[in-house]
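Lecture notes, continued. The same structure-token format from the folding unit now serves as the input rather than the output. Read the line below as a description of shape only.
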């Protein structure tokens, strides 16, 4: 078939699929609905709210966070000896941490300030896990003094520091050993953390590390830890990794005559960014895997071994991703022609410029992520306008690379300046990676409380904030 026809067919298919998804979202997604053509999130009119709070800003739903936590708890309900540690790196706003704490799960941290934020939000040290490939002596000292639930040791160097500190202070520290199970996953390459990865120690070194810990007077060995990566779209890598860690734990228990207290399977539960029947093996933004699938393979495998060991997990994305939308305004538009170097016309491109570039929603550039995008005041009409969506930053790359059809997004034909757009499923790893690049402020964040009220939970940076770090 002729190349142009194939591309016309593909374009038509992408447009149709997107419009079907849009209709499904407003008719059956638990978070969204439609009123007077406007898009509602947890019954809040997104167009109206975007005219009350200055865009760009994120809007979180407390209810959706609670639903997600409940779903994970439910998945593990047949194994009551499970502890859930929310990976605070996914979103560490104090208010969000407080919501997590109120819902009676624990926290995972990857830096000293993350630990401090968790403590400030009400978690006890004994409810926090400390991960990371580089922990300085002062970080470990703080963690140990705060009686952290488990420091997941990532190297012999780190273990030596823990020994030194606990001997000096004569206080106990709980540790687990992060091993690399050597399991690859069809997620984004930068999200793989258990295959040729920097984290964890080799399986063959685990026995030596256990022996060392057993001989340390103040260090308690809790168990083994893995985290195979983020947004793992299929079950196979989890199944393989759970078998590897359990086989190794069994072997170590036998050869060293010890009994581990816990086994930590990390995070990585995926969420769909593209809805429907896509192929997760080819595109990790599609997934149908849920918390029960994740729980079942862990519980089944653990029960073949022991029923008296504690299971720990560290989900991040699954708890907050679906709980936020990013609201942004169209401030400018233009039509530009793409030529080849002999000035033959290749394409005519409609550009819309919004007030949120990759300094506000960075996944779009670094990870080439995809988010559905809707016009908040026109959600019912068919979306037929193919347009590229660009941010305000100086870089040529500051536009959203993954659209509905190639680099193009779809909006309703009558979209105009001043309209506000909503990127959905933006609750994970977004606020955490905002920057003040080009001296543009990091965004505000608002929350729809479970009672349906709106609260500002973070304000936008001011000029004074931005210069407050400079010494002059
Ligand atoms: C050690 C560890 N645990 C848990 C997580 C959370 O992963 P996710 O958000 O995919 O659940 C991460 C994410 O990078 C991690 O590095």
């Amino acid at each position: 078939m002729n190349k142009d026809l194939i591309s016309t067919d593909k374009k038509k298919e992408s447009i149709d699929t997107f419009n079907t998804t849009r209709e499904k979202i407003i008719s059956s997604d638990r978070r969204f609905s439609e009123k007077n053509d406007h898009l509602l999130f947890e019954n809040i009119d997104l167009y109206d709210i975007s005219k009350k709070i200055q865009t760009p800003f994120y809007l979180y739903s407390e209810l959706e966070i609670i639903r997600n936590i409940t779903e994970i708890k439910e998945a593990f309900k047949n194994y009551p000896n499970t502890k859930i540690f929310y990976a605070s790196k996914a979103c560490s706003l104090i208010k969000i941490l407080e919501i997590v704490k109120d819902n009676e799960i624990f926290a995972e941290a990857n830096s000293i300030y993350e630990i401090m934020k968790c403590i400030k939000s009400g978690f006890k040290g004994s409810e926090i896990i400390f991960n990371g490939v580089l922990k300085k002596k002062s970080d470990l000292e703080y963690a140990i003094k705060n009686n952290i639930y488990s420091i997941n040791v990532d190297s012999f160097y780190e273990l030596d520091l823990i020994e030194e500190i606990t001997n000096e202070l004569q206080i106990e520290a709980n540790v687990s050993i992060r091993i690399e199970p050597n399991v690859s996953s069809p997620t984004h390459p930068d999200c793989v953390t258990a295959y040729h990865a920097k984290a964890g120690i080799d399986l063959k070194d685990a026995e030596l590390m256990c022996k060392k810990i057993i001989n340390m007077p103040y260090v308690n060995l809790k168990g083994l830890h893995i985290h195979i990566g983020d947004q793992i779209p299929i079950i196979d890598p989890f199944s393989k990794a759970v078998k590897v860690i359990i086989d190794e734990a069994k072997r170590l228990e036998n050869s060293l005559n010890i009994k581990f207290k816990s086994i930590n399977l990390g995070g990585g539960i995926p969420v769909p960014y593209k809805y429907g029947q896509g192929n997760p093996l080819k595109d990790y933004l599609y997934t149908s895997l849920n918390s029960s699938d994740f729980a079942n393979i862990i519980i089944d495998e653990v029960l073949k071994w022991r029923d008296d060991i504690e299971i720990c997990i560290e989900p991040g994305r699954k708890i907050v991703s679906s709980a936020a939308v990013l609201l942004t305004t169209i401030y400018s538009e233009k039509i530009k022609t793409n030529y080849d170097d002999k000035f033959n016309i290749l394409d005519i491109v409609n550009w819309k410029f919004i007030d949120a570039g990759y300094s506000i929603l960075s996944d779009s550039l670094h990870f080439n992520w995809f988010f559905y995008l809707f016009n908040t005041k026109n959600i019912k009409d068919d979306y037929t306008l193919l347009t590229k969506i660009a941010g305000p930053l100086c870089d040529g790359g500051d536009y959203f690379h993954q659209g509905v059809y190639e680099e193009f997004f779809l909006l309703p034909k009558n979209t105009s300046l001043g309209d506000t757009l909503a990127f959905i499923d933006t609750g994970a790893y977004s606020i955490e990676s905002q920057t003040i690049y080009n001296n543009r402020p990091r965004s505000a964040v608002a929350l729809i409380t479970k009672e349906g009220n709106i609260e500002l939970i973070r304000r936008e940076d001011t000029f004074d904030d931005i210069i407050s770090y400079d010494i002059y």
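Point for the exam: The chain has two domains: 3-60+322-467, 132-313.
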